[in-house]
Design the sequence.
């Protein structure tokens, strides 16, 4: 019974913090978001850090996230894409740089400086974060830290 009460209090506290974050979104941020994404549905807000807000929402059948400064300046939009939606020239860059790889996740990231493709790929037992700009230039290739603690791969000697 004591654990049940503690659990209920904890859940109430979490939902209160979440609601507080939803209500504290600056009007400049909400206005800029509404102007940029007028057809967005099911919007939820979180404060990324002291200088940035992130909205997660649905639009055109996809899940999006968009970041705005506290002053309402749009910073970045990201959304997942299917493997079949990866342009041939971008896929060719992956093929040139990796052999026998599996794409675990693919996203398009848009910023004021342009569009890029972000991938989580697996090559054998290794996982990589890869970013390719819209011109086909590989701009980031980094071995993932495996933050989620993949239980199937306990080999930490990489």
Sequence:
């Amino acid at each position: 019974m004591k654990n049940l009460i503690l659990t209920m209090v904890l859940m109430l506290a979490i939902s209160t913090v979440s609601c507080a974050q939803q209500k504290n979104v600056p009007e400049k941020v909400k206005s800029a978001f509404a102007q940029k994404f007028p057809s967005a549905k099911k919007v939820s807000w979180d404060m990324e850090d002291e200088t940035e807000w992130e909205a997660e929402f649905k639009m055109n059948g996809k899940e999006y996230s968009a970041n705005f400064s506290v002053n309402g300046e749009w910073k970045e939009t990201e959304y997942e894409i299917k493997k079949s939606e990866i342009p041939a020239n971008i896929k060719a860059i992956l093929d040139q740089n990796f052999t026998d790889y599996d794409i675990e996740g693919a996203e398009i990231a848009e910023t004021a400086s342009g569009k890029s493709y972000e991938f989580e790929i697996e090559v054998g037992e290794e996982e990589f974060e890869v970013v390719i700009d819209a011109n086909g230039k590989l701009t980031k290739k980094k071995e993932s830290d495996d933050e989620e603690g993949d239980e199937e791969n306990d080999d930490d000697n990489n």
